[in-house]
Amino acid sequence: MLIGSYSPALVFISFCVAILASYTTLDLTGRIATSTGRAVYLWTAGGALAMGVGIWSMHFIGMLAFKLPIALGYDGPLTLLSLLIAILSSGFALWLVTQPRLPTAQWVCGALVMGAGISAMHYCGMAALKMQPGIDYDPTLFGASLVIAVVASAAALWIAFRLRRNTPYIRLARGAAAVIMGLAIVGMHYTGMAAANFAQGSFCGAVSTGLSGNGLDNLVLVTSLAVLSIALLTSLLDARLEDRTAILANSLSQANQELIQLALHDTLTGLPNRVLLADRIDQAMHKVADEGGCFALMFIDLDGFKPVNDAFGHHMGDQLLREVALRLREDLRSQDTLARIGGDEFVLLVQLAEPDDALQVASRQVSLISRRFRVAEHDLQISASLGIVLYPGNGQTAEELLMNADAAMYHAKGAGKNGHSFFDASMNSNARKQLQLLQDLRQALEQQQFRLYYQPKFDALKGTPVGAEALLRWEHPEEGLLLPDRFIALAEKTGLIIPIGDWVLNEACRQMHLWCEQGYQDWRIAVNLSALQFCHVGLVDSVAGALARHQLPANSLTLEITETTAMSDADASMEVLQKLSDMGVDLSIDDFGTGYSSLMYLKRLPANELKIDRGFVRDLEHDTDDAAIVSAIVALGQALGLRIVAEGVETDMQQTFLTRLGCDSLQGYLLGHPLPAEKFMADISRLERQAAS
Ligand code: C2E
Ligand code: MG
Ligand code: MG
Predict the structure, then answer these.
(1) Mean pLDDT of 204-218
(2) Which position has the higher pLDDT, 228 or 107?
(3) Max Cα-Cα span within the chain
């Protein structure tokens, strides 16, 4: 018997190669498991090649480590065949462990096939020696080598399957598993080698024709190391790339989420905006089509929000809106949508079991808003007007529903605010009428359809006329005589109020000039200014122009601005008011008591007159609060050196009371209605005749 020996260095190297091959394989299974599409096939093919070369070179280096006292060589074709077997069985193993599941039967079959493959590779490699006579294998050890091959394959498959997904400490786990797998492969190889007995006098038939020589071990080692390292490096780089891509994709989807949030929500309150609302309405309509049922859409507009915003500033207004949103939201169920679609406009979409339930929801929302709000140490009182549409019934599309809810909301406002209205078809025609009115308004100036009516003001004590307030009327060709509340808001919305206001100023001054010529030089003519005119840069010039054109002294003109207008942008108003006051024009604060004036501010205003809002005058007789307010306003005005005018005087009792309180002048239906100039003068002359007689 020939006694073989092993080169310890090569044995160690073969063991290292086995571990490296195992690690590479485990790493590649991870790659295959997380790849998609064509990459899966590429990684499986590359993996099979690397793993096959790795296992085979371990085996071949192990063969080279084996020395016999005779010269050895390896038959080329058989050696190549053993390499091919290694690659094919590796490919099979890789395919197996990257399947989504690995049932036991499949695992056992896989282990058998792979064990057989490895054994085939080994014994085919041994056959490449072409020993003469043939190698005599010890049956026990031979059998043991086969069992080890199968068991090692089973262990390797199981480990590879478990470790294919990325988990924490995956590299460490794979390293340990690689050592175990390496040991098993090496164990199989050397058991197989131990089984081989070489008869005395044998010789190697492949010495002359096959592969041999001293450099062979190095060549195989370098080649297999190169293949393994390339595979491993590529795998590592690819994993890093995949991680980076995953991080990028993650931050991209996060950015997307934020964009969606921004695009679909109102930044101030965080509530859904108009776009998201439209989508939710569409969804709700689909749901009704599929499952039946109904929903209500409620258009909520705050009453008295603008004065708060004007008086306390936008910051406070914003905070109030946030509080309103919170309070409304609190009361809703998760399937309902509350959206903010404009300044102080909210829309509520509620799923209903019964159409009648809408009423309850609406009145609850209205009462929630009418409760006091505490914002930045201020108690604020506002209310809400709410318009309701029901679906199915009040519209076909989201836009139509919203438009109708808006019309119903306007109806609720018109009916006294702080309440709700259900939509009905007549409201829609109102909206159409408004549109027609706007078209007519654009031509009204040109067509000379505006008139001024004059309402007298009287000295409270003496009862003599002290002037008149010019009140605008529109002689509409079809609708007849229209009062300002029908068209002023429309004119303001469209900016038409600027030319109309100029016309009023001019016409009032023309009339006053005529009265001056008739001997009423001590009268004053009062003209109302809208907020928009007040902010317009040309106002001071317009006033100066009108006065100059009709040769009127500045103090025969009183400009009436409402309290809210004067307070809206306190500093800017102060500047305009100061300029007008410097010109000598008389200034009056109209509708006093309805806004949120600060006393400090009032003191600085260059005003000459306060007009008590007719709301207080109306209820004087029944409401002790109003009586107290009126006497407080009178006292306040007197303290600030202002003239006090009471408007809306309708009864003798109001006249007596207001006179006693100390009002300077009175105005109201009791004393004279607004009339065209000739009729106005006819009344005045009649009064004068009565007084003379
Ligand atoms: P205002 O300045 O407070 O005018 C007084 C309003 O009270 C007038 O209504 C007048 O007809 C009404 N009134 C007078 N006495 C009584 C009374 O005893 N009882 C009642 N219930 N009402 C009385 P009108 O003419 O409908 O004007 C409404 C508002 O329209 C005015 O309120 C004013 O703010 C605005 N306005 C009128 N003319 C003009 C104008 O030329 N330009 C601008 N910008 N606004 C105007
Ligand atoms: Mg007025
Ligand atoms: Mg007034």
Answers:
(1) 75
(2) 107
(3) 166
Amino acid residing at 62? G
- What is d(CA 415, CA 405) in angstroms, rounded to the nearest whole number? 15
- Nearest atom (ligand 1) to Cα of 472: 38
> Which residue puts its alpha carbon closest to atom 28 of ligand 1?
484
The pLDDT value recorded for residue 43 is: 82
268-277 tens-digit pLDDT: 999 999 889 9
| 163: pLDDT strictly greater than 80 | no
Q: Are 675 and 683 in contact (CB under 8 A)?
A: yes
Going by C-alpha positions, the residue among 141, 205, 198 that lies closest to residue 3 is 198
Query: pLDDT per residue over 301-344, tens digit each?
Result: 999 888 888 778 888 899 999 999 999 988 888 889 999 988 89
**Closest atom of ligand 1 to CA, residue 613:** 3
Sign of CA dihedral 159, 160, 163, 165: negative
Residue with tokens 């006179």: 659
Query: In 3-state terms, what secondary structure has residue 371?
Result: coil
Which of 469, 471, 650 is the best mutation target for the ligand 1 pocket, counting ligand atoms within 8 Å of the beta carbon and taking the most?
471
CB burial of residue 37 (10 Å; 0-12, 13-18, 19+): exposed
Tokens of 471: 């009140």
Asked if 508 contacts 527 with a C-beta cutoff of 8 angstroms, the reply is yes
* Residues shown for the chain: 693
